[in-house]
Amino acid sequence: VLVVDDEEMVRSTVTRLLTLNGHQVERASSGAEGLSMFAENDYDVVFTDFGMPEMTGAELSRKIKEQQPDLPVILLTGYTETETAHEQVDGILSKPFKRDDLETAIQNHVSP
To answer: pTM for the whole thing?
Structure first.
């Protein structure tokens, strides 16, 4: 699992919750770093923040989907208005979310 968020606290929290559920997690602090990690590694799912500087989560998702259309990308957002992002991502989780919400998102979008 790749977690991309510009806020360290969010990256740490999501990583801890996913690790508790048995997932291997790598973290990136920006869209550019996440895109670089995506190019070098294989992931089952990507969780990305929507509101990051320089490259939004929707932009990151679009770039990932150009190369790997079947890779699920789940948007993590505190914003209520993200309609434009819907077409770029496979799912949206509104912050704050629970551990079960992350796991449900993975189960809904990742083939066994």
So the answer is: 0.90
Let me know if residue 102 belongs to a domain. Answer: yes
pLDDT digits (tens, 9 = 90+) for 78-94: 776 555 555 678 888 88
- CATH number at 70 reads 3.40.50.2300
Sole residue written with tokens 């508790």 = 20
Say which residue, 79 or 106, is predicted with more confidence: 106
Q: Is 109 exposed, middle or buried (0-12, 13-18, 19+ CB in 10 A)?
A: middle
Separation CA 24–CA 29 (nearest Å)? 17
Q: Is residue 16 part of a domain?
A: yes
Confidence (pLDDT) at 43: 97
In a domain, 112, yes or no: no
The count of domains in the chain is 1
Q: DSSP states of 23-91 as a string?
A: ---EEESSHHHHHHHHHHS--S-EEEESS-SSS-HHHHHHHHHHH-TTS-EEEEES-S--HHHHTT-SE
